[in-house]
Design a protein that fits this description.
Bound molecules: D-xylitol-5-phosphate, zinc ion
Shape: globular
CATH superfamily: Aldolase class I
Helix content: 25-40%
Structural class: alpha/beta
Oligomer: single chain
Length: 211
């Protein structure tokens, strides 16, 4: 079963709540994007306060597109978030971050930007729960899909046959099947789901294409 996960990349609490309410009716999990204006040239809500305040049945993952995630993760430890993704390019303290998150019983995903080679994973791959491949330059909804990342996903599946693979950015029902064929287990989708007639219709399209 391929999981399609709507992303929430917003600048205000109102937009955050709006998207949470829409997602609650249609899915089990959302992906909350956090951008700090340093690691990526965009800024979102902080996310941790918002997720603490809501009451929801949704499972929530946080994607930290931030510089020095070691200075951010402590805020997420006592939130209901069950997955935390941080970028390998953003820190020299990956091992420490993973240990802290694991102690708090969070699932940990390590994110790779489109141009970051698979080799960057080597020192930590055994300690993370999943690998998160960016298929756009991170930071925004609607980034340009970079097809070449498929090769890296293919290699990853070959080298790490049992690892969960999540892919994020520019995904549509048209390109989803190729990502799944390469080895993706989870697909994070933003603009396609929020723009094309809403979540219900969008999720239906993915189901059809991946059936
Ligand atoms: C991109 C974010 C993605 C984004 C996906 O920087 O990490 O999660 O929300 O949105 P689309 O599908 O529009 O690329
Ligand atoms: Zn994301």
């Amino acid at each position: 079963m391929i999981e399609i996960i709507p992303s929430i990349l917003v600048k205000t609490r109102e937009e955050f709540l709006e998207k949470i309410m829409a997602a609650e009716k249609q899915c089990e999990r959302v992906h909350v994007d956090v951008a700090d204006g340093i690691f990526v040239p965009n800024m979102t809500v902080g996310g941790f306060e918002e997720v603490k305040e809501i009451e929801t049945t949704l499972k929530i993952g946080a994607h930290l597109m931030v510089s020095k995630p070691e200075n951010h993760i402590v805020r997420w430890l006592d939130t209901p978030v069950d997955k935390v993704i941080f970028h390998i390019e953003a820190t020299k303290k990956a091992q420490e971050i993973i240990a802290t998150l694991k102690e708090a019983e969070k699932m940990v995903g390590i994110a790779l930007n489109p141009s970051t080679p698979l080799e960057a994973l080597k020192p930590i791959v055994d300690s993370v729960d999943f690998i998160h491949f960016m298929t756009v330059e991170p930071g925004f909804y609607g980034g340009k899909y970079i097809e070449a990342v498929i090769e890296k996903i293919n290699d990853c599946r070959y080298f790490y046959p049992d690892k969960l693979i999540e892919v994020d950015g520019g995904i549509t029902p048209e390109n989803a099947a190729a990502l799944v064929k390469a080895g993706a287990n989870m697909l994070v989708v933003g603009s396609y789901l929020w723009q094309n007639g809403g979540l219900e219709k969008g999720l239906e399209e993915f189901k059809k294409q991946l059936a």
